[in-house]
Amino acid sequence: MPELPEVETARRLIADKALHRRIVDVDDSDTFVCRPHSPGELRAALAGRTLTEAYRRGKAMWCETSEGGPDLGIHLGMGGRIVVTSKDGQVAEGGEPWRRDAQPRKAEWDRFTLTFADGGSLALFDKRRLGRVRLNPDIDALGPDAAEVTLAEFRDLITKGSVAVKARLLDQSSLAGVGNLLADEILWQARVSPAARTNGLRRAEVDGLYRALESALDSAISQGGVHTGDVIAARRPGGTCPRCGAEMRHGTIGGRSTWWCSREQAHRRRA
Predict the structure, then answer these.
(1) Which ranges in the chain belong to alpha helices (H)?
(2) Looking at 32-36, 191-195, 200-204, 266-270, which range is the least confident one?
């Protein structure tokens, strides 16, 4: 699913291509994606306004609207993309990386659409229908954004309790934005076992995880998504560590499918 880097590409697309364009119509007819709003409710709230700013915390994204209007929250779900069409028909997309699909694209996969006065549009394309659009989304339950957290904050939040470190990285209330692939990439870069307990991590390991977080995010944002990480292609049966050549191991940690290097990330129980 889209993680912080993919959502950031969608946010940047909105910021670059969709702000300050007057909204003249809204297709909010998908009652599942637009729940709890009834059809026409988002249209009534947004028509005549413009999007003025685009923000993100973790995987959550929202836009301020003009004239003191409501915030428009857009969640990409498991495979959503933002598609912005310019007034001259040029199309730009951001979010989940584009993949070749055997099925022809269907109009109903645009789950929510803003039509602008200039003839262009902004749409949430979501084949799996797991995205979400709502007014004034509540983001208070999210922890600090993974791209903005300081080292001091990271040291404090990552070492609380005794859960597996991968589970902590995936906990959006502690650190917002890290998903399954990004967590495996961070742990691999830092040479830390995903099963290591948070209260047993050494200071050097915590600082190494922070550096790996920064590095993995910077690379994924610039390269187009978390699928471009150095270890991602090796997350498969028969895969080997890109760094040392050892066999990659697989298990379930924090309820998620997890891959790690059998040599460099071997779990060592502390006395």
Answers:
(1) 4-17, 41-46, 151-158, 165-170, 180-190, 203-223
(2) 266-270
